[in-house]
Amino acid sequence: MKPAGAHRTLCLVLGLALAAVPPMSGAQERAPGTARLGSPPAVTAAPAQLAQSRYPSPNQPYDDVGGGTGGGDGGDYGGDDRRPTGEGRNWLIPAIVVGAAALFAIGKTLAQEKAETRDESAGTRELLRDGPQLAPQFNASAFGVRGLVRGGWPVVVDYAQQRPGRVLLRIAIPGAETVSYRLDQFGLGRHVLRFELPPFLGDSLRPAVIALTAADLETGQQTIDGFSVHGLGIGPRAVGSVAVDRLEFDPGLMRPARGDTARYAFRSRSDFDHAAVEFMQVSQSPDGVRKRYVKGQRIGPVQRDSRIESLPAQRWDGRDERAQPSAGRHQLQVRVWDEGGDWVGAWSESLVLVQ
């Protein structure tokens, strides 16, 4: 991709408006004593009317070009991950955390998704049953979500960018042009953006890869730190603001050896048929925060305008699925989804340190 000063020559206006959403209520709240993943900037809103753009295939960033092996398979879903997975490698999201390799893997996945020809009914059924899927480990500055989309549906993303860089949100489905949105045009800070997917994605539910990447501005070949996604959702029930907010995860410090446990809570702004909470080990690196799945649980349906809090038996004991202590910092990940196809992924700002 060309430098930011020249990117306007690559843009094709889709005729859609990128509208601002009021900041989430309580987005900066946290329980006393909890740690944060860096120092979050103040919440800001995006400009009210800005044109969306789509980068045509001749001008795709380098990492949208498939082919080659790059960093290898990088650890796709395997036997070590116990969350529901796809019925074949075509449904996988690459589990690569190293910056340049992660960018390449995401770009390759998007290119392969665009070129796929397959019966999508199995993937649709899986996502309706198990919800949006992420890799068991990923770089927060270059990751993908396997989720359902539909032409004309609203998308909402709540993110923070603390360093200059090239930030893209891209959506790929088989047989269609990859849709790209340039998010760094809104500047540094916290933004909650809402927009609509283009009609050419179709009028029925389809599995898609939704990718977010934050790369260095000059070359676009290395991920940057200082980028975090707090919420991402697609579908009428997912938006307004992000339909899952006010995530709480505490205490800031726990010691499993002495019987400590961690509680979680969040608010749902809509009805969803399914919800899952997951505990992610996080570590800071120069190329972005790295996250690894530790343990999770399905918690059933959630109701509109309700606060969901862990029962005593649902509190996390600081151990992984093999009952081994998981030392280090951890973040709460919440996924909710509806049988109509709407879904949200959200991540807590507060962290729990396990010693």
SSE layout:
Elements: E1 12-20, E2 35-36, E3 50-54, H1 99-115, H2 121-130, E4 133-134, E5 137-139, E6 142-149, E7 154-161, E8 166-172, E9 179-182, E10 189-196, E11 206-215, E12 227-234, E13 244-250, E14 253-254, E15 263-268, E16 274-283, E17 290-298, E18 306-309, E19 328-337, E20 343-354
Parallel strand pairs: 14-20
Antiparallel strand pairs: 1-3, 1-10, 2-20, 4-6, 5-17, 6-11, 7-10, 7-12, 8-9, 8-11, 12-20, 13-15, 15-18, 16-17, 16-19, 19-20
Which key phrases capture this entry?
disordered N terminus; five-stranded antiparallel sheet; single chain; 355 residues; twelve-stranded mixed sheet; globular; mainly beta
What is the H/E order? EEEHHEEEEEEEEEEEEEEEEE
**Regions with pLDDT < 50 over 5+ consecutive residues?**
1-89
Helix content: under 10%
Decide which structural class fits the backbone.
mainly beta
Tell me the fraction of residues in β-strands, as a range. 35-45%
Number of strands: 20
If you average the pLDDT, what whole number results? 78
Radius of gyration: 19 Å
Number of helices: 2
Which overall shape is indicated by the principal axes computed on the Cα atoms?
Answer: globular
Distance between the termini: 44 Å
Q: How does the major sheet shape up?
A: 12 strands, mixed
Summarize the model shown.
With 355 residues, the chain is mainly β.
Q: Can you tell me about this structure?
A:
This protein has 355 residues and is mostly beta strands. Helix content is 8%, strand content 38%. The chain is built from two helices and 20 strands. The protein has helices at residues 99-115, 121-130; strands at residues 12-20, 35-36, 50-54, 133-134, 137-139, 142-149, 154-161, 166-172, 179-182, 189-196, 206-215, 227-234, 244-250, 253-254, 263-268, 274-283, 290-298, 306-309, 328-337, 343-354. The strands form three sheets. Strands 1, 2, 3, 5, 7, 10, 12, 14, 16, 17, 19 and 20 form a twelve-stranded mixed β-sheet that branches. Strands 4-6-11-8-9 form a five-stranded antiparallel β-sheet. Strand 8 and strand 9 form a beta hairpin. The termini are far apart. Residues 1-89 have low confidence and may be disordered.
